[in-house]
Write a structure and sequence with these properties.
mainly alpha, 12 helices, two-stranded antiparallel sheet, elongated
Length: 349
């Protein structure tokens, strides 16, 4: 194990030329980052996860109930043994050929089977109450971290003088506030490892959507778009990438981990451009949906991030004079395997 750690923390990879780990030992005058500090994130991650459970149960849920957000989920699909077997054992998205086969087998029209599978997929989605609680937790944590970070930056002038940082690199002392900030952030994202398979990816603006506060939802989305594009396409490349690429090259010079970190930052900038494109696309599509003669605010609840999947070619209404399917009596029961009711099935989304 010691050999593996020694290989992983090879100072020729992580540190600039002529710098060793011994040069970064803590002294009475200064404290420097230590590799052992990373181990603190694991127990703290578990603690944050437990705090999240308490927060969602005793704070977020009462707030949701006060806003009349119900725990009911999507509409339940009508029970059908044959379709359920296909859904669980074969595919959740049947192709056209399979749909036609099921249509003949059940004596349902293809459209009704498509609707059943859509409802069945939505049935596995969490309730609005669950989504609200998770969104409120993330909103609260990010708001706290953002507020703390802004307050910390105000009293840390050397962070604004980036060239001064590189002249002292890597001998810049680690302050208590900075240490707390990094460990808290690292612990939070490690805590997501406990819940990443059950989390619902939602934004803070979605809380207003769940609470039916459409104007607030629109306003939050506009604010989010402006802040995101300004910081990710403006401040990040012009300030952060400029200093990590050019100023560090000029003052410190490249070394192996320099290339790794800067390539990762460059990859992040590529993702920022892609995400900004999606945000702008959503905004343009929302504006284009405005009614004639009246500008319509950005309907975030109807954008590409909507909670319930839908398709423009899968309308709820059926053509006039056409029943979704015809019931066939088998063994004295109505429908196939006793699951199909006579007449139109109630499968509206």
């Amino acid at each position: 194990m010691a050999g593996i750690l020694a290989w992983f923390w090879n100072e020729r990879f992580w540190l600039p030329h002529n710098v060793t780990w011994a040069d970064l030992k803590n002294t009475e005058e200064a404290t420097f980052p230590q590799a052992e500090d990373l181990y603190l994130a694991f127990p703290l991650a578990f603690c944050i996860f437990m705090v999240r459970l308490i927060f969602e149960r005793f704070i977020a849920k009462p707030c949701a109930i006060a806003l009349n957000i119900q725990a009911s989920g999507p509409q339940i699909a009508q029970p059908n043994a044959i379709l359920e077997k296909v859904f669980t054992a074969i595919t959740k998205h049947p192709d056209e050929k399979r749909l036609e086969g099921l249509s003949k087998q059940l004596d349902w029209d293809v459209r009704s089977i498509q609707r059943w599978f859509r409802q069945r997929r939505n049935q596995e989605k969490p309730s609005t109450l669950t989504r609200f609680c998770e969104s409120m937790w993330r909103f609260s944590f990010y708001l706290y971290v953002f507020t703390y970070g802004v307050r910390f930056l105000k009293k840390t002038p050397w962070l604004w003088n980036t060239r001064h940082c590189w002249y002292n690199y890597p001998y810049q002392p680690l302050t208590t506030d900075l240490h707390y900030y990094y460990i808290l952030e690292l612990s939070f994202y490690w805590s997501l490892m406990f819940s990443q398979f059950t989390d619902i990816k939602r934004k803070a603006a979605k809380m207003a959507n769940y609470a039916k506060f459409q104007k607030l939802c629109d306003l939050l989305f506009v604010m989010f778009a402006m802040v995101f594009i300004t910081t990710r396409l403006g401040i990040f490349p012009l300030w952060v990438l400029n200093t990590t690429f050019f100023e560090s090259w000029e003052i410190v010079g490249p070394y192996p981990s320099w290339w790794v970190f800067n390539l990762l930052l460059l990859l992040l900038q590529g993702l920022n451009c892609f995400w900004s494109y999606l945000i702008i696309k959503i905004a343009c599509k929302a504006i284009s949906r405005g009614k004639a003669g009246k500008w319509n605010p950005l309907h975030v609840s109807k954008d590409d991030r909507s909670d319930i999947e839908s398709s423009s070619d899968e309308e709820d209404s059926e053509p006039p004079g056409k029943n979704p399917h015809t019931a066939t009596t088998t063994n004295g029961t109505s429908g196939t395997n006793g699951y199909l009711l006579t007449g139109s099935c109630s499968m509206d989304d």
